[in-house]
Specification:
747 residues; eight-stranded parallel barrel; globular; TIM Barrel; alpha+beta; Immunoglobulin-like
């Protein structure tokens, strides 16, 4: 087809014999609408197969290829340190650092035919010539005769002089003695059927006006996450980034942990502590672009050479004009080695359990999603605008990750909705386990900004939450860090605004604004979780309605940390209403922990009533009733269900412990009535074979479960009680009492 021919020409690949790659097209049995684009899929699958076979031929295997960190950078080998760096544009090169007084004349490097520079530095007196924690740099001369100094591309640690303002970063040789190396004690936890993800930024996780550390996060924040019944932690800003306010997305050193929060051993302590609590740990990995920094970033290796000799594309193709950052050349052999080895490094060395890939939309298309409003038309996904180099890299990446760690969780941040992104590579997909449901938070912000309560459309809300591709799993979220950045507002702040500063005390009667805000905060997050995907994500602090936006220290705010922290004392103070939102967040996670509705493929919306502002649906064997009406209570409201029997309340947002008014009775049995002819949906009630009646107060959500006949009459789940995980909070208190230098936590 014309579109496929354009892909061939734009990526400078000849139309080769496609071979028999149809065995990989299980994707087409799921979506016949992809048939017209079969040539595109055949082409990209052929590219993937050829690339993998080429790697296996020249590097023995994809597995071996991804162990580049054992070959490149600094590694100790049989009495010497071996240092390798890929820099084909360099004419001469040497290694300098504290170990040689920053004079490289005695440590010249040799270049091979592939542009790789190498030096072997013998041990001195039985010890490595370069001391652990000493500074090093790569010095090379490029085409115009200029010598430049750069941080090694594969450096495993980089630090900044804390006594100098805006000091440049230095590469650090990290090779601690055995006594100082952290040894993992706990195995990886099993992969959850449905991830309930707590998105966290270690640096801003302290309540104090400073950057928090990995160890403090492990000791004081992880128990909170566990107590709220999350099963997965997603860590932002792990890879070193010189600009703190970039939220970690302008990476300068890809193999180095962010030194603001501690050392590599400290991060290992955090991950091991998470595993001891049964928490998976995902890393926010940034392979979509790199920092534009020259002095301390990968961009410093670009001295005007061609794309084939650089990590990045040359010219406009190598620059993201909105992000002011560099774009990788995914067709380059050494770039593939670098990025695939980077993934392997974080899995092997730090025991991460998977990744959330940032900026996938930018990778998938030559236009990077800029000024592009995706409508769902398949021509938008499979044409000359598709960056097949990047698609092949992502296929290789997912292949590698799931080969090294079969139980890994890998999530794509993609706003375009490309079909096949969340299906296995073996079916012709790109291989991600989940994609982020990025349209959902946009819809909530649109409603909160522009619509009165009575203008909310139940049909539009329901459609927005269920509009996802069949068999491609999504992570739903009402808000993430994106919605909390300076200039925007969290959902709690949209709902309650300045009254959050004066109206959150339980010692005074709640104002209508606060009452509405807490009620809708619970409903918005819960319906997003229950109806929006196969997993759920919450950003640190939003579980209890953290006020304020996030504003990193910068010149414009006087380098203040006031808005770059989490005020845990708000939720810890018993007379403040923040505790109600936190308790409900804990309970809705517990509901899924025990009844596993998120992992159920059964999702049926049976009632969308615009006048009454009610949405009724089933997820798994639970029945959810959401009443968004600001005033109306419905007595004897009829709801459809699948199975006959007796239903009781499993979770109720209106209970007193969640800041409600306690209007729904939990000791009431709801018996079903058969509807119509069994097996004939059109004769049923809302296409459901049974029904029962409930009380539905305004701005509430209630979940009902089917009581098993063998169950005791007095037995019911305690999902409205969050005491099951109080032991985790006890650990916080114990850590506080044992802590030194952290006595003001939760002041």
């Amino acid at each position: 087809s014309a579109s496929v021919s354009a892909v061939f020409s734009s990526d400078s690949f000849e139309t080769a014999n496609m071979g028999d790659v149809t065995e990989y097209f299980g994707l087409f049995s799921l979506d016949r609408g992809l048939e017209p684009y079969k040539d595109h899929f055949k082409y990209r699958m052929k590219r993937y197969v050829d690339q993998k076979e080429l790697i296996e031929k020249n590097e023995r295997s994809l597995d071996e290829f991804s162990l580049g960190y054992l070959k490149f950078g600094f590694n100790w080998d049989e009495g010497c340190i071996v240092y390798r760096e890929w820099a084909p544009a360099a004419l001469e090169a040497e290694v300098i650092g504290d170990f040689n007084g920053w004079n490289g004349s005695g440590h010249k490097m040799e270049k091979n035919q592939y542009g790789v520079w190498t030096i072997r530095i013998p041990d001195v007196g039985g010890n490595p010539a370069i001391r652990h924690y000493s500074r090093v740099k790569f010095r090379f001369k490029h085409g115009n005769g200029i010598w430049v100094e750069r941080i090694p591309a594969w450096i495993k640690y980089a630090t900044q002089d804390p006594t100098r303002f805006a000091a440049p970063y230095d590469g650090v040789y990290w090779n601690p003695p055995p006594s100082e190396r952290y040894e993992f004690s706990y195995p990886r936890p099993s992969k959850p059927k449905a991830p309930r993800i707590y998105e966290a930024h270690v640096g801003m996780s302290s309540s104090e006006l400073r950057v928090n550390t990995y160890r403090e996060f492990a000791d004081f924040v992880l128990p909170r996450i566990k107590a709220n019944n999350y099963n997965t932690v997603q860590l932002m800003a792990v890879m070193e980034h010189s600009y703190y306010a970039s939220f970690g997305y302008h990476v300068t050193n890809f193999f180095a942990v962010s030194s603001r929060s501690g050392t590599p051993e400290d991060l290992k302590y955090l991950i091991d502590k998470a595993h001891s609590l049964g928490l998976q740990v995902l890393m926010d990995v940034v392979h979509s672009h790199a920092s534009n920094n020259v002095m301390d970033g990968l961009n410093g290796f670009d001295v005007g050479q061609s794309s084939q000799d650089s990590y990045f594309h040359a010219g406009d193709r190598g620059y993201h004009k909105l992000w002011d950052s560099r774009l990788f050349n995914y067709a380059n052999w050494e770039v593939l080695r670098f990025l695939l080895s980077n993934l392997r490094w974080w899995l092997d060395e730090f025991k991460f359990d998977g990744f959330r890939f940032d900026g996938v939309t930018s990778m998938l298309y030559h236009h990077h999603g800029i000024n592009m409003a995706f409508t769902g038309n398949y021509n938008e996904y499979f044409s000359e605008t598709t960056d097949v180099d990047a698609v092949v890299y992502l296929m290789l990446a997912n292949d590698l990750i799931h080969s090294v760690l079969p139980n890994a969780t890998v999530i794509a941040e993609d706003v375009s909705g490309m079909p096949g992104l969340g299906r296995p590579v073996s079916e012709g997909g790109i291989g991600f386990d989940y994609r982020l449901a990025m349209a959902i938070p946009d819809k909530w912000i649109e409603y909160l900004k522009n619509k009165k309560d009575e203008e909310w459309s139940m049909a539009e809300i329901s459609w927005s939450l269920t509009n996802r591709r069949y068999t491609e799993k999504c992570i739903a979220y009402a808000e993430s860090h994106d919605q909390a950045i300076v200039g925007d507002k969290t959902i709690a702040f949209f709902l309650m605004d300045k009254e959050m500063y004066s109206g959150m005390s339980c010692l005074t009667e709640a104002s209508p604004v606060i009452e509405r805000g807490i009620a809708l905060h619970k409903m918005i997050h819960f319906i997003t979780m229950a109806l929006g995907g196969e997993g759920y994500l919450n950003f640190m602090g939003n579980e209890f309605g953290h006020p304020d936006w996030i504003d990193f220290p910068r010149e414009g705010n006087g380098w203040s940390y006031d808005k770059c922290r989490r005020q845990w004392e708000l939720v810890d103070t018993d007379h403040l209403r923040f505790k109600f939102m936190n308790a409900f967040n804990k309970a809705m996670n517990l509901l899924d922990e025990n009844l596993m509705f998120l992992s159920s493929a059964k999702q049926i919306v049976s009632d969308v009533d615009e006048d009454k502002k009610v949405i009724v649906f089933e997820r798994g064997d639970l029945v959810f009733v959401f009443n968004f009406h600001p005033e109306n209570t419905y007595e004897g409201y009829k709801v459809g269900c699948d199975f006959p029997g007796k239903y009781r309340v499993a979770l109720d947002s209106d209970t007193w412990e969640f800041g409600g008014l306690g209007r729904v009775g939990h000791d009431v049995d709801h018996f079903t009535t058969p509807e119509g002819i069994p097996g004939v949906p059109e004769t049923n009630f809302n296409n459901r074979p049974n029904s029962f009646k409930v009380l539905s107060p305004p701005r509430t959500c209630v979940v009902y479960y089917l009581v098993e006949e063998s169950s005791s009459e007095n037995t019911s789940p305690s999902f409205n009680e969050a005491a099951d995980t109080d032991s985790a909070m006890d650990e916080i208190e114990q850590s506080r009492s044992e802590s030194t230098g952290y006595e003001n936590f939760g002041r």
